[in-house]
């Protein structure tokens, strides 16, 4: 009979990922030297980690792994002609202002090839945490500032027993979620036979903000380093889980929050506001906080249509800002859900062009480099968006079976929202929480509905 040690060894061998090669891809055409100043919307994210996305694809008899890798590299060479900033590096000008630099001599995007033929798609699609993802996505624990000497995009392609995993690490100092999925959709478009992309990226960052900010960045202590003297508090044990809310569940949440329309003539609560307050209230309840404690809700909001003048949807860069709002725990959990939804709605609606401009001027006068966990006390922070077309990223061998975030930029209360695989209005809610809080949330029938 196999011992426990033998079983553990066998499990480790099954989950083993072997790196088989590393190459770099540049734009197919010579583009010369290009420089793009990073602006106030970009700079605060220098001390975040690379943003990681994982796309899982089923295998196909018509597409061997080598064929898939070759097709992806060929398509990448074409799409980087438009998205060439991703093939560059971070740099600074003579005044110490950060910028993206590209020239034809740079190495380009890093492509890692790997095999993990002991892992099946099912092993990964049922994975609620991110432990098994670590070996499948590059640049774990790598800060965006390291883009001074690393590629701004790294992609790992791993052959599974019955499929392929694409793990991407994007430098968050140069692009947000909208730009990420614009690039991914464009890359898929080329791989599917298009000779050019349908929507070119808008590369003129300084049209959104042209203030030059000199930064002398000293990196903060690594928040994941328990030995850090700067913060002796213990690092909480986190768990991640994906809660899949069907279209019917989303409709139920929205109709409940809108059951008693406000008397002040406010707009009905949106799907996002309804789901956001549902998550905020139930996570706060699971944390077992005191009624007088404060809790913060944070959303990283797209400002493309909020700035003056508005920027096109194709604006390439970061055009997001964190919107914070807070209330007492007792007010949030003891009032009906429309109370919290109104708090969120007011904060979002107040974040207009004037508020964005004031926030930018305040930051420029005293620049503060955020850490990924600076979202607030007892917080629920929402990133990503169910509007991103993540299941449309089809390179020619089918849509993804699952789309997930990697291990980077996670903290207690971080939430990523994705389209549900079943389509329609279904939404996947990926949450990181302290282990005990997650256990209580998993037992909360009012939160789960039919999940």
UniProtKB/TrEMBL annotation:
Query: Main EC class of this protein?
Result: transferase
Top-rank lineage group of the source organism: Eukaryota
Q: What is its EC number?
A: 2.3.1.144
Does this entry carry the keyword Ion transport? no
Q: Which GO terms describe its cellular component?
A: cytoplasm
Q: Name one GO molecular function term.
A: acyltransferase activity, transferring groups other than amino-acyl groups
Q: Which Gene3D superfamilies match?
A: Chloramphenicol acetyltransferase-like domain (3.30.559.10)
Q: Report the Pfam families cross-referenced here.
A: Transferase
Keywords of the record, alphabetical order, are: Acyltransferase, Transferase
Which family does the record claim for this protein? Belongs to the plant acyltransferase family.
Q: Which PANTHER family match?
A: BAHD ACYLTRANSFERASE DCR, FAMILY REGULATORY PROTEIN, PUTATIVE (AFU_ORTHOLOGUE AFUA_3G14730)-RELATED
* Protein known as: Anthranilate N-benzoyltransferase protein, putative
